[in-house]
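Sharing a chain and its predicted structure for anyone who wants a worked example. Both blocks are below, sequence first, tokens second.
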Amino acid sequence: MRQDRWKSIVEWPLVGAALVFLAAYSVQVIGDPIGDAAATVDKVIGITWGAFVIDYLVMLVLARRRAKWFLMNIHELAILALPVLRPLRLLRLVTLIQVLHRTAGNALRGRIIAFVLGAAVLLTYCGALAVLDAEKIEPDANIVTFWDALWWALTTITTVGYGDHFPITATGRVVAGALMLSGIAVVGVVTAAVASWLVEHVTAGATAAVETQEEPMREEIRELSAQVERLSAQIESMAERSTSSGLSSAQST
């Protein structure tokens, strides 16, 4: 399929563009650059935005059913076209998680660990950036520094939710909703991975304990078998002697 070939070609370049966007966006949101620095950051963000636009247009052209693809990917167009949804461009970093998932090896645990760690770190950091970008300009906001945003993202993605920091803007609440749903998924995967690890180690420990106790039992069984064989040989020998003495007595009379 032509779209699949295009994806395989641009996968890593788009990952690189997403990482560059993340770096520039971080500088813009956290550092609040001014003057030439702000202009440079805007140019970098504009170039990465252009890469995403090109990818979107090529995917649309290569689609077999363009109308259906357009409707199924209307969110991509909204993220690219609406400035208020600019923080959601960080969703492009999901591609990086997919790449980590594929390159983590064939072991299921390695894939799970790569996915969980990558997803948790990226979601937390990107959620903090996105909500800070949406909230910091509001006069009544209570998320005004990156550390406030990072604390909020950690408590949200872990489903703790202390409530000391919360978004008040529409964009911030959209980010919060996405982070909540993602947090449920990540916590579920973490729980499953920990449970699998515990079951495996408990099973391995029980197997080792059984094997440790099994060898002495086998040795005792071997010794008992040897004693039974000796007793059987002695009984047979006594029976033969008794039979021989009985025949001798009969012949003498």
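Comments welcome. The longest helix spans residues 170-252.
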